[in-house]
Design the sequence.
């Protein structure tokens, strides 16, 4: 018997992963949630049939979305994380002892419940005393916040479905308002490779550029995401991702990583020519 | 009588499709084969359903089978004596109402802010309008409903008028006391007509204003394609027991196509079924969404999303809570500026904006996540573009029109163009609309007075948007040749 999970990356390309068994399948108010075990990637979570994370490669995504801003901003005390129901970003953040408070806003309580039960490797720090979880629409939550956060991390799903509002001009504008005067916004920025993803990537970049004075993009290689080439957005009111990088300070923290290093940090901002072209087009 | 679970036109189309009938009739695209690009755009299913009237599918001009059944089901669902399926938009339904009840030289009582389709009907049939002042809210700059005493006065002054027409509700969601007005009309031997272009949902909720059929109106033009969910251009004309079905059908057939679209007809049929079975639930959800949006928008500051607090027992007898009408003056922006910013900066298209307000149209297709986007964008519009000073509004003034000629006579008369300053005393041949509040200052066939010329100049200075005349700057007006 062959049992495969397949996801279309374009109408003409798909990625298939052999599955041992399905551990969970359920439907919330917002989406369908599935958890599988696989021989190659270990346990993995999908939402509406789209790959969210696998045990094998999630470290790349979560380290890159968290440590890059943490190595730049000199004093992060209060963080807002939007999405991130799997707990991976929280796991990384809670390694910083001087962090005082984390607000996590996840629209779907069932995602958190399922991840706590089936994905303990990422959801292991969701009971940290510094963390408050809010189950509501991220766009709604941030609307009333002003001058409050040092760092906002947007760990959203794709720009269609429930995550759509997190790629809009109004959302980035509200983030700007919610950040302190030296705050940083990090978002998962889709892939530049396949045309449809590239268009979403361009739209997001355009919306961020219009909202923040500093707006850069950095990359990582994530095998189970479409094309494997993934981008993150670094938008900031004050700090530059390279000029304000404090390598010594971050390395002194001794946070164990398997992907992120402060050397890779610098390299990640050097993006391919075609991606530069794609982004310059909307700047 | 069939049950509301049925959709006879839809079912007949399905059955017809199953029979795989070979088409040697119109339309010439022959199930899309003759126009592959159109089929690709609209979908195979859609072009296959674009068929001609024939025995198994009935005929809109003289319905005897499935269209008749669909009309009977619609009548039952809307509490009407009869329902006509319309394929020429609600404009055709409004015109059929007017043409059914008045003829050349006869009078009909109307609020001054009637839809242009009513004026079109007057040009067609030669009836004479008697206008009632829709009261105006000076703070918001919007027209309200007709006051009972104003309608009564018009009825007393024009006892030979044939009918009274009422907007139920206005674009902004304001309702007059339709039940009292219908009774007044009937007591004086007149008919009561309702323009319900924005009121389809009234028939399927206890939380919303009274529908025209329930209020005792004799005819109602209902835009199924607005809040009802059917395809654009499809509509319903409802009649009460006092109207003769055959007469109304004859009137409709004067101007209606003989090739009624089955896409439109089946969309009416399916939408009626949906509303009858699930409408109450769906509109309760819309009301909830609109109330939530109002609360959030009013929480931003500056914006005023108004609702039932406007109710005053007369000119605002009731308010349609599904209408998300928002006043923007205290944000320091005109409604039309917010309308443009939402589209250009945030990719959000709303229904309209005037000087002081905008309207976001909520319907059975809305979800909370889109409401969140709208509210967040409004919050950003205020943060990025808001000005500290409230934009001022001019004081509205209602100038009683002097109707010299019927719209039809004015439409066909010889015309000439005069500078605005020399136009006083002449009879106007065009519309002059002023936004806000969206009430005409002049209509074809009305005397231009000194006071009106002054008011046009004043409104222009105040930055009101004026539309209608051939000269967009309104330095000149078209008037009738000769002395009237």
Sequence:
């Amino acid at each position: 018997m062959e049992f495969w999970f397949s996801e279309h990356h374009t109408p003409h390309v798909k990625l298939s992963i052999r599955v041992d068994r399905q551990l969970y399948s359920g439907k919330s108010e917002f989406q369908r949630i599935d958890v599988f075990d696989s021989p190659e990637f270990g346990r993995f979570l999908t939402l509406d049939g789209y790959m969210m994370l696998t045990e094998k490669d999630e470290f790349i995504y979560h380290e890159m979305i968290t440590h890059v801003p943490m190595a730049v901003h000199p004093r992060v005390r209060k963080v807002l994380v939007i999405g991130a129901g799997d707990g991976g970003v929280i796991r990384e953040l809670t390694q910083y002892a001087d962090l005082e408070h984390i607000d996590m806003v996840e629209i779907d309580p069932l995602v958190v419940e399922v991840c706590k039960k089936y994905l303990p490797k990422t959801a292991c720090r969701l009971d940290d005393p510094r963390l408050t979880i809010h189950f509501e629409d991220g766009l709604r939550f941030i609307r009333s916040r002003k001058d409050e956060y040092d760092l906002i991390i947007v760990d959203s799903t794709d720009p269609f479905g429930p995550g759509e509002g997190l790629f809009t001009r109004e959302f980035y504008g509200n983030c700007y308002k919610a950040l302190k005067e030296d705050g940083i916004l990090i978002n998962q920025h889709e892939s530049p490779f396949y045309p449809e993803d590239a268009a979403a990537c361009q739209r997001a970049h355009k919306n961020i550029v219009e909202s923040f004075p500093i707006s850069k993009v950095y990359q990582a290689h994530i095998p189970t995401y479409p094309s494997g080439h993934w981008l993150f957005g670094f938008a900031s009111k004050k700090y530059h991702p390279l000029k304000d990088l404090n390598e010594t300070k971050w390395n002194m923290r001794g946070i164990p990583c398997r992907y992120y290093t402060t050397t890779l940090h610098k390299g990640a901002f050097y993006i391919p020519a075609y991606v530069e072209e794609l982004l310059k087009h909307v700047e | 009588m069939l049950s509301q679970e049925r959709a006879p036109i839809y079912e007949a189309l399905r059955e017809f499709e199953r029979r795989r009938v070979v088409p040697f009739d119109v339309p010439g695209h022959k199930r899309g084969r003759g126009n592959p690009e159109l089929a690709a755009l609209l979908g195979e299913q859609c072009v296959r359903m674009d068929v001609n009237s024939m025995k198994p599918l009935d005929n809109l001009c003289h319905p005897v089978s499935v269209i008749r059944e669909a009309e009977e089901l619609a009548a039952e669902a809307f509490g009407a004596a009869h329902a006509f399926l319309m394929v020429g938009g609600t404009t055709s339904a409004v015109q059929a109402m007017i043409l059914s009840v008045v003829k050349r030289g006869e009078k009909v009582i109307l609020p001054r802010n009637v839809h242009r389709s009513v004026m079109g009907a007057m040009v067609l049939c030669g009836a004479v309008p008697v206008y009632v002042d829709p009261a105006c809210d000076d703070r918001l700059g919007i027209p309200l409903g007709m006051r009972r005493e104003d309608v009564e006065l018009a009825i007393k002054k024009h006892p030979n008028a044939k009918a009274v027409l009422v907007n139920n509700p206005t674009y902004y969601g304001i309702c007059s006391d339709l039940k009292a007005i219908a009774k007044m009309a009937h007591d004086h031997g007149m008919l009561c007509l309702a323009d319900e272009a924005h009121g389809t949902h009234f028939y399927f909720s206890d939380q919303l204003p009274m529908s025209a059929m329930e209020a005792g109106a004799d005819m109602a033009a209902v835009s199924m394609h607005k809040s009802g969910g059917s395809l654009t251009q499809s509509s319903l004309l409802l009649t009460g027991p006092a109207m003769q079905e055959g007469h109304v059908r004859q009137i409709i057939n004067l101007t209606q196509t003989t090739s009624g679209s089955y896409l439109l007809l089946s969309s009416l049929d399916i939408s009626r079924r949906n509303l009858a079975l699930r409408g109450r639930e769906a509109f309760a959800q819309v009301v909830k969404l609109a109330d939530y949006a109002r609360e959030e928008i009013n929480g931003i500051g500056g914006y005023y999303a108004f609702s039932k607090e406007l109710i005053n027992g007369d000119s605002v007898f009731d308010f349609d809570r599904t209408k998300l009408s928002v006043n923007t003056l205290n944000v320091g922006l005109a409604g039309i500026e917010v309308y443009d910013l939402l589209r250009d900066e945030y990719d959000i298209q709303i229904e309209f904006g005037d000087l002081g307000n905008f309207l976001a149209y909520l319907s059975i297709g809305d979800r909370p996540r889109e409401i969140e986007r709208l509210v967040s964008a409004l919050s950003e519009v205020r943060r990025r573009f808001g000005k500290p000073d409230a934009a001022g509004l001019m004081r509205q003034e209602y100038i009683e029109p002097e109707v010299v000629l019927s719209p039809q006579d004015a439409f066909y008369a010889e015309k000439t163009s005069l500078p605005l300053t020399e136009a006083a005393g002449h009879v106007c041949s065009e519309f002059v609309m002023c936004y806000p509040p969206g009430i005409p200052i002049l209509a074809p066939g009305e005397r231009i007075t000194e006071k009106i010329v002054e008011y046009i100049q004043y409104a222009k200075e105040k930055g009101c948007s004026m539309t209608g005349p051939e000269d967009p700057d309104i330095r000149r007006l078209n008037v009738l040749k000769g002395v009237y």
User: Anything to note?
Assistant: The longest helix of chain B spans residues 262-300.
